[in-house]
Specification:
With about 400 residues, the protein is an alpha+beta fold. About 45% of the residues lie in helices and about 10% in strands. It is built from 14 helices and 8 strands. The strands form 2 sheets. Strands 2-1-7-8 form a 4-stranded antiparallel sheet. The chain has a 4-stranded antiparallel sheet with strand order 4-3-6-5. β5 and β6 form a beta hairpin. The protein starts with a helix and ends with a strand.
């Protein structure tokens, strides 16, 4: 990962001459010089504007010489529009397109509303990255040291392939050498900034100011909360009674019916007969479904039931989701069998403690960086092109 290579910048030998550079002018990465938002900008991936030839119907077309004589004098022509600005930094549509194309490959593009929401979310994440990289650049690291580390990293990457292979790899990613260096520089500044937020490193290479030590009580609490996932999950066999709202006259009626049938089974009625007469799923097999690993059960209540209930025990009615995730009824589950699996390792196991510690720190790091990025973006003056459908400009300063 590129952030691992960037940790070299924080080595004492490299940072020896940087600690006093806090007053130096920041050199945040930029997509170009600051620019004011234009009155109109082309949509994403738009081609440069072309002025059509206009003439009256039936009029003879003018010659190239005549058009040249009547043409306006040469002047500035907008080749790329401004998609957004953050403080004094302009982001072009071409730059945003790169981020969108890399983030939309797993989205159903036939759903226009979902595509628009996903595109705007990608734009927000892209702008948050930009302000985080700018914050990293403002920590006072010497720009020449940043460039040197980035280029050393990229040179190491190139050394693993022949020139032709490396060129093909970056072309397959839709990139080029200049873009690779620019993205690597952005990632480096982001890594530096996130390191200061999480306490993995001090600002500008100075002393760390955030306590990252996890207390034993925190490790113990994490162990108790995740003990069912630390071991090998067993395989369980279920018998299900599904009552659909459409068949019962509504979801409330389906819940009442599921509770009534469960009470009948607890009172001694044959559960097989109840399922065959009233159930929806696998009715011909009395609701018996294929075995499933306990960790594959989506409902956390049923997951705990699968690993802790007694054989033959009935669950309380649980919500039954449809294919689209909407509630369609209620399900009562009978545990028929449980096999395999292994209990979680003891808390005294060093590897278990290390894994819990890494998971806790990783989660807290992500939350801290995301919150800091959102706050920094909220405190910036942000202008978005109207193509995004967001009223603006917006500004919120402390």
């Amino acid at each position: 990962m590129i952030r691992t290579a960037f940790a070299l910048l924080l080595a004492p030998a490299l940072l020896a001459g940087i600690a006093g550079a806090q007053d130096a002018a920041p050199a945040p990465p930029a997509d170009g010089p600051p620019a004011a938002p234009p009155a109109q900008a082309p949509p994403v991936s738009a081609a440069p504007p072309v002025t059509p030839e206009i003439r009256a119907e039936g009029a003879a077309s003018t010659s190239g010489t005549e058009r040249a004589r009547s043409a306006p004098p040469p002047g500035f022509q907008l080749l790329d529009g401004i998609a957004a600005t953050v403080d004094d930094r302009a982001v072009t549509f071409a730059t945003v397109d790169e981020a969108l194309l890399s983030g939309l490959d797993r989205i159903d593009r036939s759903d226009q509303s979902a595509l628009q929401r996903a595109s705007f979310q990608i734009l927000q994440d892209f702008l948050r990255r930009r302000v985080q990289a700018q914050a990293g650049a403002e920590l006072g690291l010497a720009p020449e040291d940043v460039r040197r580390v980035v280029r050393d990293y990229l040179a190491e990457q190139r050394s693993e392939y022949s020139p032709l292979e490396y060129g093909q790899r970056i072309r397959d990613r839709g990139s080029d050498p200049l873009r690779e260096e620019r993205e690597a520089t952005l990632e480096m500044y982001e890594s530096i900034y996130s390191g200061t937020i999480t306490g993995r490193q001090g600002p500008g290479g100075r002393r760390k100011r955030i306590d990252r030590y996890l207390r034993p009580s925190q490790i113990r609490a994490a162990y108790l909360q995740s003990s069912d996932t630390l071991g090998t999950p067993p395989e369980v066999k279920f018998q299900v009674l599904d009552i659909l709202g459409a068949a019962a006259g509504g979801l409330d009626e389906a819940l009442v019916e599921a509770r009534r049938l469960r009470d009948e089974a607890l009172a001694g009625a044959d559960f097989d007969a109840i399922v065959r007469a009233n159930g929806y799923t696998a009715r011909e097999n009395a609701g018996r479904v294929a075995p499933v690993a306990a960790d594959q059960i989506y409902d956390p209540v049923l997951k705990r039931f699968a690993v802790s209930a007694r054989i033959g025990e009935l669950s309380e009615p649980r919500p039954l989701p449809g294919d689209r995730g909407n509630l369609i009824g209620y399900r009562v589950v009978k545990l028929l069998g449980r096999s395999g699996g292994a209990p979680p390792p003891p808390l005294t196991d060093r590897e278990t403690q290390r894994g819990l510690r890494d998971a806790l720190l990783g989660r807290s790091d992500r939350l801290a960086v995301d919150e800091a990025g959102r706050q920094r973006l909220a405190d910036s003056h942000v202008w978005l092109h109207p193509v995004w459908g967001v009223p603006g400009p917006t500004a919120r300063r402390p």
